[in-house]
TrEMBL record:
Its EC number is 2.4.1.1. The keyword Chaperone does not apply. It comes from the Bacteria. Pfam families: Phosphorylase. GO terms for molecular function: glycogen phosphorylase activity; pyridoxal phosphate binding. It catalyses: [(1->4)-alpha-D-glucosyl](n) + phosphate = [(1->4)-alpha-D-glucosyl](n-1) + alpha-D-glucose 1-phosphate. This is glycogen phosphorylase.
């Protein structure tokens, strides 16, 4: 994108960053996207910096017990590559000064990220930056005050000039309260300060699930000190009552985006009862290729034999990885389906097992093997039951179904390179984007997916992957599930399996088409260009 002098300077605020598997600062897709955003910004030499929190324990580590159930465990991680900026800022939380130490992270070929940390001797509230998404109430508010209010203060103290504040998710919205407070302390009225703040802020919304859009009671925010000098009326004007973080972000920004075209439609419908300045525009997510895509695959995809052998190497690496972790030896000549996702009900992780009369013969007669991975949120019992059921299936079909515990970037990378098929069967339209499918597609792993999230933008059925069903939606989830299940089995039995075993040259052509049709369209360079054109410079 060339000379960066004319590009606005951006501070990107996010609760989590997925930079490298062992740097436990991420939970899932949001963090991976943020990590990729920072790496892409560095590659392109764009004037973007990140603001985040340095988590002591990160997100939960998942352990599968002898009883086949998932358990949460937390470890204190220490990192020797964090650079001390020497800067500390203070945020008043529950009437107490909380000191936030500011670390700098540049180790992963990423644009500089500043991470705030309250785990220092001068604090009583060292726990605030302990667990990522551990809690929902006062603790979450305290964390978000550190990110938003502390983040802006850190920028001032570091002496970094910023033109655009990008809130990646509503978690960061308290930063706007600090931007408003700054202007009011210089004599502006609330209305004027809000108007000026709006010119500086952009916002990305990520979830079409209602409960994923955090709300807090106003009395709790007041007690925590999150009003940051504003009045109750002003807070309600911004975020409603209760205070909704997404609504607030929509009202303090000049422009907001959703993370796929379909998601933009869903998001605008979802917030149609709220008035905010402009419609939410789509900027489809993307991935950082050097992180996620095997260089051999990209180099050789024009040559069918070389592509196939590079793929088989990735598949064998995955099989070896599984053997080392789980003791199960999968067969490189049997079609391998990968599925790793957060265990949330709408993702329907155990969907493929719904009709035993269909799935059992495929798994027992060596037509199919499936590898799963995925964590449930520590407080989500429904999600944990889904994980338990996947583990149960791995015991039911010990030679053809595997559950890899503790889904992380490494597992994500192994699976999106080494599987033959990437299965995605969410209840439409609840999957906002789904970047794992992009990783798979560029590695020549064929997507078999519901037409949700990013997939309608890429899918060319039978050419570069497959769609499950026809985009059917229903308010009646039973009806939707029945419809989608029929479609899943139909395309699996009539197209995917026969192509794999009887028409290998067509399969390889599809792999080539998968790579060709996605490698630029869903690369982080395209995405960053859009962020600049449609959001930062808008
Ligand atoms: C890519 C990735 C994600 C996001 O994938 P989805 O398709 O949104 O589920 C989440 N977690 C990890 C570890 C990843 O690598």
């Amino acid at each position: 994108m060339g000379n960066n002098m004319k590009y606005p300077r951006v501070a990107y605020f996010c609760m989590e960053y997925g930079l490298q598997s062992e740097f436990k600062q991420y939970a899932g897709g949001l963090g991976i996207l943020a990590g990729d955003h920072m790496k892409g910004a560095k590659d392109l030499d764009l004037p973007i910096i990140g603001i985040g929190i340095k988590w002591k324990q990160g997100y939960t580590d998942q352990m599968i017990g002898k009883d086949g159930k998932p358990y949460d465990s937390y470890h204190n991680y220490e990192y020797d590559f964090l650079e001390d900026t020497g800067v500390k800022v203070t945020v008043k939380i529950r009437q107490r000064d909380v000191v936030c130490k500011v670390w700098k992270v540049e180790k992963f070929n990423n644009a500089t990220i500043y991470m705030l940390d309250t785990d220092i001797p001068e604090n009583e509230d060292t726990w605030i930056t302990g667990q990522l998404y551990g809690w929902f109430g006062e603790e979450r508010i305290a964390q978000e005050m550190v990110l938003g209010i502390g983040g802006v203060r850190a920028l001032r103290k570091l002496g970094i000039d910023i033109d655009v504040y990008h809130f990646n998710e509503g978690h960061a919205v308290f930063a706007a309260l600090e931007l408003i407070r700054e202007k009011m302390s210089e004599g502006e009225s609330f209305e004027k300060a809000l108007e000026l703040t709006r010119k500086q802020v952009v916002f990305t919304t990520h979830t079409p699930i209602k409960q994923g859009n955090e709300e807090h009671p106003l009395d709790r925010l007041q007690y925590m000190g999150a009003f940051n000098g504003l009045t109750l009326e002003q807070m309600v004007y911004i975020g409603g009552a209760p205070f909704n973080m997404t609504v607030a972000a929509l009202r303090v920004c000049k422009k907001a985006n959703a993370v796929a075209k379909l998601h933009a439609e869903t998001a605008n419908a979802m917030w149609s009862h709220v008035d905010y300045p402009a419609p939410i525009i789509p900027i489809t997510n993307a991935i950082h290729k050097p992180t996620w895509v095997d260089a051999n695959i990209l180099a050789d995809y024009n040559n069918p034999e070389k592509l196939w052998s590079a793929h088989m190497e990735n598949k064998k690496n995955l099989i070896k990885f599984i053997k080392e972790r789980n003791g199960v030896e999968l067969d490189p000549d049997v079609l391998l389906i990968g599925f790793s996702r957060r265990a949330a009900p709408y993702k329907r992780s155990d969907f493929i097992f719904s009709d035993e009369s269909i799935i059992r013969p495929l798994l027992e007669n060596k037509k199919l093997q499936i590898v799963f991975s995925g964590k449930a949120h520590p407080l989500d019992d429904t999600g944990k039951n889904i994980v338990s059921n996947l583990v149960k299936m791995s015991k039911e079909y010990p030679n053809s179904v595997v559950f890899l515990e503790n889904y992380d970037m490494e597992i994500g990378m192994m699976l999106t390179r080494g599987a033959d098929i990437w299965l995605n069967n969410p209840r439409k339209p609840l999957e906002a984007s789904g970047t794992s499918g992009m990783k798979a597609a560029m590695n020549g792993v064929l997507n078999l997916s519901i037409l949700d999230g990013w997939w309608p933008e890429a899918c060319n059925h039978g050419i570069n992957g497959w769609q499950i069903g026809d985009g059917f939606e229903s308010k009646d989830t039973k009806e939707q599930d029945a419809h989608d299940l029929k479609s899943l089995y139909k395309v699996l039995l009539e197209e995917v399996i026969p192509t794999y075993y009887n028409n290998r040259s067509k399969w390889i052509e599809m792999m080539q088409e998968s790579i060709k049709s996605t490698k630029d369209a869903f690369s982080i360079e395209r995405m960053l260009k859009e962020y600049y054109e449609k959001l930062y410079m808008a």
